[in-house]
TrEMBL record, chain A:
Belongs to the binding-protein-dependent transport system permease family. One of its GO terms (biological process) is transmembrane transport. InterPro entries: MetI-like, MetI-like_sf. The chain crosses the membrane at residues 59-81, 93-113, 119-140, 174-197, 217-235. It is found in: Cell membrane. This is ABC transporter permease subunit. It is a multi-pass membrane protein. One of its GO terms (cellular component) is plasma membrane. PANTHER family: ABC TRANSPORTER PERMEASE PROTEIN MJ0413-RELATED, ALKANE SULFONATE ABC TRANSPORTER-RELATED, MEMBRANE SUBUNIT. Its main location: membrane.
Length: 248, 344
């Protein structure tokens, strides 16, 4: 799985780079717009040690953000699953919080928490958790009539049991979404670094943009892709493990 | 009584006259249409895209005044003055053909030229660089560069303020370990909270706003100007593509004449009321008193005594190139003077 995923990613990366270079030479664009292949290689070799460290920094925040998002999405999803007034309030609050664009909320977060690790983490969680929450709420709001009817008739039904039944019956869907949201965690962390932080690969991209240095951005994209692929493989493996355990 | 035959004859001649009259009108209309269709292109307004470096604010007042005041129109140009921003790059747009003219800072231009961007500079909008550092004069003293030692200095990593500050430190023999460099963004909170001693500002844009806020809090401010240390780092300048400059010198001449006319009028204190009225249409968030202060500051940068609006200061451009070379931002000399078009 690891080798396949990496080969797939590298193939796509090389194709995209070839397309970019084709555009450069086809349209006769200067090295300022798209750098030549040799410059990309030179810059890549030059900045890779630094950028790998930055990507790992970003990845560590993304993993933490992803874990918090999962916990948060399941906790809020369970609270909002019922038909009570509290559930309705939680649902409304969850939707309202998400309706604000992160770039508008970010300055408030930075004023309150500074531009360090905590701000990055919060923004990453805010970007990542909502798609998760929607799925969890959707799954937990949908009754599994065949099974729930039995427990209802025998008088054993309770909120906890209802949630467990619905999660068990939809475990495939839930693990797929959890795996998919790993990408969102990475994206969220990079966005937060781009708009506020002084660390991580998002910040490096911002500096490279200031310097109009496309070769650095292309290198950053390579390492972001590698890191994201590795993380996705890990999350997929955990997802499969959970799936197998539950199925057994 | 008029005989019937005579009546018929008169009716016939009337009809003939009316037909001829209609034919003449048709002929005249056709000729006018033909003339209009064949008229030289110069009679029609030529559409131009002009990409600014930054958002609409006082730093682009001459550009928007040239459009709003009809300067471009009088030169037969219909110019769309497009707002810039942090993610916009006028040089790339000019090279890609999305804009015919653009505004970029000198370091951007020299960097682009070192990578073969086919552009030329046709005017230098700021004769003095607006980039300075604001500080609380009640807390620290900044009489000489060595006073920077031990201070926390705000810089935008990758921005021209980083280049300028590193040059000051190098020239003054101050090591990076002697100061604390603080990465700044658009949020001034770290400066308000006094976490940072010196904060980079455009003296004509953010400085009046920060000064007013700190004065309201009972704090005095002053400015640390790199020009006092002999650093003449060129700021915003107008660029176009080399192809357009060689193929359409007439267009360059008309555009530049109109643009500099706009700047001339915008910088004239006699037009201040009208200029502020135009500016407030574009920049709705700045208070009128601040805007008036910003305009005064801009006037001192764009048209200081003894200078000409739009003039290209070749020696300052050479110094800017030397700084970029010294800091290894460009790998080899570009000989910037070869890309500075003399003012028509």
């Amino acid at each position: 799985m690891l080798r396949n995923r990496m080969v797939q990613f590298l193939l796509l990366y090389v194709l995209a780079l070839a397309g970019l270079l084709g555009l450069k030479y086809g349209l006769g664009l200067s090295d300022y717009i798209i750098p030549p292949f040799l410059e990309i290689c030179r810059t890549g070799l030059d900045v890779t040690p630094r950028y790998v460290a930055h990507v790992l920094n970003t990845l560590s925040i993304a993993i933490l953000g992803h874990a918090i998002s999962l916990l948060l999405a399941f906790a809020i999803g369970m609270l909002a699953a019922g038909k009570s007034a509290i559930a309705a309030l939680v649902k409304t609050a969850a939707y309202n919080v998400q309706s604000y664009p992160i770039v508008a909320v970010a300055p408030i977060i930075f004023i309150l928490l500074g531009d360090g690790l905590l701000s990055r983490l919060i923004i990453s969680v805010m970007i990542c958790y909502f798609p998760l929450l929607l799925t969890v709420m959707g799954v937990l709001s949908e009754p599994v009539e065949d099974i729930e009817h039995f427990y209802r008739m025998t008088g054993h039904i309770c909120w906890g049991l209802q949630v467990r039944v619905r999660m068990f019956e939809n475990i495939g869907k839930l693990t797929t979404v959890a795996v998919g949201s790993a990408t969102m965690a990475m994206v969220g962390t990079i966005v937060s670094e781009f708009i506020a932080s002084n660390a991580g690969i998002g910040y490096s991209i911002r500096v490279a943009l200031y310097q109009s240095d496309m070769a650095k951005i292309i290198t950053a994209l390579l390492w972001i892709g590698v890191a994201t692929s590795l993380y996705l493989i890990l999350v997929e493996w955990i997802g499969n493990l959970i799936h197998r355990r539950v199925a057994a | 009584m008029i005989p019937r035959r005579l009546n018929h004859a008169q009716d016939g001649s009337k009809r003939k006259a009316a037909t001829m009259h209609r034919q003449r009108i048709f002929f005249a209309v056709s000729m006018v249409s033909l003339l209009l269709w064949c008229s030289p292109r110069s009679l029609q307004a030529e559409e131009i895209q002009y990409r600014l470096k930054w958002l609409y604010n006082v730093s682009v007042i001459g550009d928007i005044y040239a459009e709003a005041g009809g300067c471009f129109g009088r030169m037969g140009l219909k110019v769309e003055v497009k707002e810039g921003g942090p993610e916009r790059d006028a040089i790339k747009e000019v090279e890609m053909g999305y804009a015919q003219f653009g505004v970029a800072s000198a370091d951007q231009i020299i960097r682009a030229l070192s990578k073969g961007a086919p552009i030329v500079v046709i005017a230098q909008l700021f004769q003095e660089n607006p980039l300075q550092w604001i500080y609380r004069s009640g807390r620290i003293r900044m009489d000489k560069p060595s006073d920077l030692k031990g201070k926390t200095i705000g810089i935008t990593y990758g921005g021209n303020d980083e280049t300028v500050m590193r040059t000051i430190l190098l020239q003054s023999g101050i090591r990076e370990s002697d100061v604390r460099l603080y990465s700044v963004r658009y949020d001034y909170t770290p400066f308000y909270q006094a976490k940072v001693d010196l904060w980079p500002v455009y003296v004509n844009a953010q400085a009046p706003i920060l000064r007013k806020k700190l004065e309201a809090a009972g704090e005095k401010t002053a400015l640390f100007n790199p020009a006092d240390m002999g650093i003449r780092f060129v700021a915003n300048s107008v660029i176009t593509s080399r192809k357009l400059a060689s193929d359409r010198p007439d267009l360059i001449h008309r555009f530049l004449s109109a643009l500099l006319d706009g700047w001339q009028q915008a910088m004239d204190p006699a037009h201040a009321t009208e200029v502020l009225r135009v500016l407030s249409r574009f920049d709705r968030d700045t208070a009128p008193d601040i805007m008036a202060e910003q305009l005064d500051a801009t006037r001192r940068l764009v048209h200081p005594p003894g200078t000409t609006i739009g003039a290209i200061d070749v020696s300052s451009w050479r110094q800017t190139e030397e700084i970029l070379l010294q800091q290894k931002i460009i790998p080899h000399p570009v000989h910037i003077e070869r890309f500075l078009a003399p003012r028509p």
